[in-house]
Amino acid sequence: MPIFEYLCQACGHRFESIVQGSKVPECPTCKNTQLEKQLSAFAVGGRADSFASEMPAGPCGTCGDPRGPGACAID
Ligand SMILES: [Zn+2]
C-alpha cells in the first residue's frame, strides 16, 4: 500500500499517510489539506521515478518491453 509523507503548508507539521484511492489526506494537527507531498520511504533512491521519466509509455505497460503487452511475462 502506498504510504506518502506530507508536509502541512499551514502549520509545517510533517506526517505520513496511507493513501487509499483518491482520498485526500489532511493534516492531523490542523485539518488543513494544503499539503506538500514528500518523497516516501519507498521512493528514496528515486530509481522508480527516474525510470518512469526516462521511459515513455511503451507497448508493455509494466516494463516497456518492445515485444508488446505481457511479452515480458511470457518470455
Ligand atoms: Zn497542519
The value of Rg in angstroms is 17 Å
* Computed structural class: alpha+beta
Helix content: 10-25%
Number of domains: 1
Number of strands: 3
- Stretches where pLDDT is under 50 for at least 5 consecutive residues are none
C-alpha geometry: rod-shaped
Please tally the helical runs, counting DSSP H or I stretches of 4 or more residues: 2
Order of helix and strand elements from N to C terminus:
EEEHH
Tell me the quaternary state: single chain
* Physical arrangement of strands within the biggest beta sheet: 2-1-3
Hetero ligands? zinc ion
Strand content: 15-25%
Beginning-to-end CA distance, first to last residue:
28 Å
Biggest sheet details: 3 strands, antiparallel
Averaging pLDDT over every residue, what do you get? 76
Written account of the structure:
There is one protein chain. The protein has helices at residues 47-54, 71-74; strands spanning 3-8, 14-18, 35-38. It has one domain. It is built from 2 helices and 3 strands; from the N terminus they run E-E-E-H-H. It is rod-shaped and about 50 Å long. By secondary structure, it is an alpha+beta fold. It has a 3-stranded antiparallel sheet with strand order 2-1-3, with no helix packed on it. Helix content is 16%, strand content 20%. Zinc ion binds at residues 8, 10-11, 13, 27, 29-30, 32.
